[in-house]
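Lab manual, section 2.4: Encoding a predicted structure.

Procedure: take the sequence of the chain (97 residues), apply the prediction step described in section 2.3, and record the output as structure tokens. A sample record is shown.
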Amino acid sequence: MIMRIFQVLVREGKEKEFGDFFHNTAIPLMKGTDGIVQVLPGAPRADSPREFSFVMIWRDLASLKAFVGEDYQSPHIDPAEAELVEARTIKHYDLVA
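Recorded output:
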């Protein structure tokens, strides 16, 4: 299994707007995606008010590529969030049982 960690730094002043997108669009989308075993969404804390994250456990690399394409190492974003995000990172790991 593949662990995919996606982190977003939201533009200052866009926290509420991104939070609405995160809770109402991104989380339901990821939870309903074929090939995802588990989704762990992370919302901001007081010490990091502009940071959101997803830890996703994918069944296998083929499932991940079926969702994001061959360039799975790049952080893909929904067009609805493009103007809200200042920076994003993506990392992949083999899940250790």
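Check your result against the sample. Strands lie at 2-10, 36-42, 51-58, 85-94.
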